[in-house]
Design a protein that fits this description.
11 helices; about 300 residues; alpha/beta; globular; nine-stranded mixed sheet; 9 strands
Length: about 300
């Protein structure tokens, strides 16, 4: 069977490694290989990986890379083929890789040689794996139907831990530019403009929320916290939108710098509007898109760019 490499970026993740790696070991896909890039953990993470998966390829960064550089290095260490991205604290359903690979092979059969990204839904769980929501996409404003480049101009929809990508896409995305907002958004943006994105509605991951996630899903907060948020919300929202707009612009600039005239003509035109056009033109462009954000936030981000 075709090998699937699991590319995992770790940093002080020893606490949850055992259940995660056990779930990868339990996959019903017969050829699964583990590649780990560690960003200088001090809690025994690397040693734990070697103990639990002796034939894993474990690389230690000589200098701190951060989450984007760490995932970029993990994917680069794979070298090629099919790659599934992994977080260090989730738990995978036993059929995660086989379900994603079945969809991948169907897609590649229809479109030989095309970059492909397949992703699934997730169950959002707490630190003890108690289910908070059966569907990440019903809990957030992200969309399982986001497949076009326009859908990814303002933000990402796809948690990296759900992604399976093929070799054609891997070669396009590496190295991940350090100035992008997040590695998984970069993968989705490139895949949506050069290739194909398809989704599986079945939740295939227990997406653990424990307070230390680099990125996560919104969870119910204490009533006092919600009350304070309502008071400070408008000011904080504007600040967040300004920051998001800056990171969005940096991500799109990185795309244009990487691909330039190689980008599809439609994408080049959208970049011109987003990066060089006026706010009303940006708003018109994204009006019919799955933005990945609420309508109000999407409008503010587009205006601040």
């Amino acid at each position: 069977m075709t090998a699937i490499s699991v590319a995992m970026a770790t940093y002080n993740g020893a606490r949850y490694l055992a259940p995660f790696l056990a779930s990868v070991r339990s996959q019903d896909w017969p050829d699964v290989r583990l590649v780990v890039s560690d960003d200088g953990s001090t809690d025994g993470t690397r040693e734990k990986v070697v103990e639990l998966w002796p034939d894993a390829k474990v690389c230690r960064n000589t200098e701190t890379r951060g989450v984007i550089g760490n995932f970029s290095n993990a994917m680069a260490q794979v070298g090629g083929g099919y790659v599934a991205l992994a977080d260090q604290d989730d738990v995978w359903e036993p059929n995660k890789l086989s379900v994603l690979m079945a969809r991948m092979q169907e897609c590649e059969a229809r479109h030989p040689g095309v970059p492909v990204l397949i992703f699934s839904d997730l169950k959002v769980v707490d630190a003890d794996l108690n289910v908070i929501n059966d569907s990440f996409f019903s809990l957030t404003s992200k969309s399982l139907q986001a497949k076009t480049a326009r859908d990814y101009l303002l933000s990402n929809h796809i948690p990296g831990c759900t992604m399976l990508i093929n070799d054609a896409l891997l070669r396009l995305v590496l190295p991940v530019p350090p100035q992008v907002m997040m590695h998984d958004w970069w993968l989705a943006l490139v895949a949506s403009s050069f290739g194909i994105i398809e989704s599986v509605e079945q939740p295939l991951i227990l997406y653990r929320q424990h307070g230390s996630n680099t990125m996560g899903a919104p969870v119910t907060r204490h009533p006092l916290t919600r009350w304070i948020s309502r008071l400070t919300g408008p000011i904080q929202s504007v600040r967040n939108c300004r920051r998001h707009a800056g990171m969005t612009r940096a991500t799109l600039l990185a795309y244009r710098e990487r691909f330039g005239d190689r980008a599809p003509p439609a994408m080049q035109e959208m970049l011109r509007v987003m990066l060089d056009g006026h706010a009303p033109a940006r708003l018109r462009l994204i009006r019919s898109a799955h933005t990945g954000e609420t309508r109000m936030k999407a409008a503010l981000v587009a205006a601040f760019m």
